[in-house]
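Quick question about two entries, pasted in order.
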Amino acid sequence: MAKKKMKKGPQGGPPMGGPPIKKGTFGRLIKYLLKHYKGRLIVVMCCIIVSSVSMVIGTVFLRQLIDKVITPGLTLGLDAVWPGLVKYICLMAGIYLAGVICTTTYTRIMATVTQGMLKSFRNDMFNVMQTLPIKYFDTHAHGDIMSTYTNDTDAIRQLIGQSIPNLFQTILSLSSMIIMMISFSIPLTIATGIISLSIVYVTKTFAGASAKYMMAQQKTLAEEEGFVEEMMTGQKVVKVFCHEEQAKEDFEKINEALYEAGRTANANGNILMPIIHNIGNLMYVLLAIIGGLMVYFHVPNVSLTGVAPVSVGIVISFLTISRQLSQTIGQTSMQVPMIAMGMAGASRVFALMDEEPEYDEGYVTLVYARRNEKGELEEAPSRTGLWAWKHPHKATGTVTYEELKGHVELEHVDFGYVPEKMVLHDVTLYAEPGQKIAFVGATGAGKTTITNLINRFYDIPDGKIRYDGININKIKKHDLRHSLGIVLQDVNLFTGTVMENIRYGRLVATDEDCIKAAKLANAHSFIERLPEGYNTMLTANGANLSQGQRQLLSIARAAVANHPVMILDEATSSIDTRTEALVSEGMDNLMEGRTVFVIAHRLSTVRNSDCIMVLDHGHIIERGTHDELIAKKGTYYQLYTGAFEWD
């Protein structure tokens, strides 16, 4: 498995950097929050303001308590100052209690807001994902996409629930503290500012490094999940080729990168708080010495209120604020890595939500139809046995109905998944209604690509594809695909009962419809032998069924959908000959009366086709019935007789 090289840190350290943060991500996240929870966020901001201000205002009353009550009480006695002591203590208790109540309130509200936001993010991502083209899933690792739903949304949870409120509270608290300190003592404020510069420098150094490695950790975690998803999907292949040791080595490399990123991020983050705490203690001691000397020597104090001697209450209140200041800076520094990781996660989530949806300019739709007294087609209000294309004509404002017959044409089609490498070259073919068209050829010849184009999983740069005479670009993709049934070699069964998996082909189908489809597909007999019949629960993609049984369920699912056109993509290539006969009989029942495209490596399954197309490197090199191609004694003849092997 090829891996992208990551930029290494200094001296061969862990990988640096991480997913890029798109400009404007923070603003978009705030808009997203306001869109869904504007009222609650206003309450949260009010609570944060009260909580932040109460913490600082309390120091004002602490100063008054000391200067107006405790200091005079030393000479006047407790009885003289008791009323004032009770008053200021009650005021301080009330202020701090209000702060506690507001903090508790906004914390509980943010818990609800955060989980609601994650729910909205996941809903929006999943809704967007349903609109994305097949190309997106072909070019993005499934584990990486899953990481967006789990790791990235969890990073957003921490950002919204903790970091943003703390950041807002920090800004308010710091602003209040600076104003209060200046009002107490400008000289002490200058001394605090000088010491605080060292805290800011330490925070910038260690928090910045931690943020880089946190982002690298987020990226590497997504890579590891993608690798694990690949290994789980391909576990049989790993064991068949005895590749366990190599798989362990590959995983160890990714896991080592994740370990190094996480270790370095946490090392930088964990060392930050003790350093800031000790610097804060040092600042506290220095300010206590400076303040004590100012009181002892009666040094004039300059503040916003003027020049006056420094009181004991001013020094103690100032020391309290300085302690709060260092703690606030320390707590904020711990949020820096979380903010960076949350922003990286939000950027990845928004990147998924911004992916271009599958473009669809079609306007022709598929409807149930009936014939009126004049024999003309008209739209039917409920399901009928007749399908029609509803074709609005903008020029005349009229609507016409064309019966869906299953006439498919490809005219001079060129196509490549990437422009510089074409897969199909000037492909032209016609499938008349009710015909069975088979494609044979080597892997990579373009067989499955043709069926992908008929479904419009990809659009063609040159040529035309018509469906009942209508250019498929004019047909809405949903309606086009609703008319096409596909039975793939790789069957996908979902967690649920057998009945629910069959009904997946048509969700409104009754139990009787599903049983009838199962009988048509030759699946009824084995379903009846299951422990709970049609109510047997399937898990892990139907791991408790054989490959043939799973394929029969896939055919039953297509049968209940009753599509006018069917595509069978190597549906019997991975089952034994005995089961193949059963599956082939089910497919023959399914194909009756429909236009069918068959892709098969086993040429015995396409003998009864109306036309067989032999493809080689994107070119149709032979076409005709089985007997006609055998008579030509060309490539098909050599393939059928085993005299030729594809390169």
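Here is the second entry:
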Amino acid sequence: MVTTAPYGSWKSPITSKSIVAEAVGFGGIALDGDDIYWLESRPSEGGRRVIVRRTPDGHTADVTPRPFNVRTRVHEYGEGDFTVDDGVIYFTNFDDQRLYRQEVGGEPEPLTPEADPAGGLRYADFIVDSARSRLICVHEDHTAGGHEPVNTLAAVSLANGALISLVSGSDFYAAPRLSPDGSQLAWLSWNHPNMPWDGVELWVAPVSADGSLGTAALVAGGQDESILQPEWSPDGRLYFVSDRTNWWNLYRRNGDGRVEPVTTPLDREFGKPHWVFGMATYGFTSAGRIICGVNNRGSWSICSLDTGTGQLDDLGLSQAELGRTDLKVDAGQAVFAAGSPSAPVSIQRLDLADNVTDYRVEGLRRASSTTVDPGYLSAPRAIEFPTENGLTAHAFYYPPRNRDFAAPDGEKPPLLVKSHGGPTSAASVSLSLSIQYWTSRGIGVLDVNYGGSTGFGREYRDRLKGRWGIVDVEDCVNGALYLVAQGEVDGDRLAIDGGSAGGYTTLAALAFRHVFAAGASHYGVSDLAALAQDTHKFESRYLDSLVGPYPERNDLYMERSPIHHTDGLSCPLILFQGLEDRIVPPSQAELMFEAVRAKGLPCAYIPFEGEQHGFRRSENIRRALDGELYFYSRVFGFDLADEVEPVQIENL
């Protein structure tokens, strides 16, 4: 029987406890012979990251013993934390950032010496150079003095851990890749103020017998071309992804050094922004065939690509959402993390043993063991809506849905607008129980791919250049107003939330526009100048392109920083913050909270000990979700169906 109850007060089986119960996040994937490895982040273990091994007989077991935590801090965002070669695992441990060597079934042994200070030497994005008994990796040195760490490409001896610099001089490096015969090394590099989705160079150099590199040659890239994921084909040709035609398409270098497209130009993306190391969206089953992920305006498909003809065939996994981890391929299989609107992200194995028309997909590990009746799940609807300057923006709308409840006649639901992080990132259509948490209680969710998001080509991505805090805010506002105009949501009960860069968009929307009636910032930026002065190397010049050079354009930083415009705030705000966050320091949230409290507006601040940029511990994930719901219930005046730990709200 369906019960009539106001939106927001519906009882839902999707609780914060069920969301984190046996939930994991996925990191890198590695294939080693017949064994498959992947990395799991476990909120139930305080966010510890563990390497898992699956053998051909289907047996799955942890490889990493306690208390080891597999996580590199290179670029702070890390990933590219481990690799496996012939049954030997090499990984970075979080606490000391040392490299460790571990044979399957054995204990980890340190490969590199202790750094002074601990964690001062960092390693990521490994490949094994078996012929020379070494690892080649990205190395980040925080002990060298100066105001920034020094990044290089380096080799680490597998015999004694000795470190030899191979390439230096650029601000950043990524993706060292050896040719199949070990005679050539390719890599990516870029310099301030570029981010890797702005301008990157792809280099290749011969490798001599003693391991040193010969004269490097520039293959592609520059100040205005983003290059991603160089890979060598089995027959020794160098492939890579480039946005030289607006979209991240696939290219290769011929034997004469010329670069050519692998397919006809497509208005689709074969890559995603290089926020973390080790991301891969394609791999080779043979010299003539690639398995790849292809993004069509926010939705991914798994495809087969004939490298000879350029023929691209969808394998029938449409709407698959590739996770931020690798897609790894060999002659008989492709292993990747993907999800769909009806299923959470999971590690999946695509059997390619026979041929492209006869394959089998096997789920190896789900991000969540929680199963939910479809009657409580809201399906995303892709929408396009008009925004400023006659342009169109994109979003996914999730209407309220709960098979047990209906709203009173005439009532329209509250809307929660979500602003993703990055800001160079994108909304996902994979089943998110954190979104369904809201919709199953009667609150609509609009997940906005504002201008600057990826998956829609470089021109769309570049809309945000020089206009962060303007374009993203306009698109979030216009998306909400579009749904109001369509009669789908209550225009008096609009809320907005976001984390990191999405938190900044949230705060800016509340300070500069009077559309939303409440907001929640999760480790969001309130003071752009403070961020420009106090953040890590990777993003230290990011704001040059998003806002303007600092301090030369301090006027823009003052103009767009919510902390300097609290006079524009007129609605309740709740803030969540990790106290060990190096990317957005706690002072950003604390200053905002004090300013809002001084105005007499309802506000709350929930800090988390031991958390960094993003919440990894199950108890804190639950507290943030339930706390935000409680806050909205008090602000919008609806009763909760379940008891939730109260939040201390000032000025209520």
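Reply: The longest helix spans residues 618-636. The first strand starts at residue 3 and ends at 4. Hope that helps.
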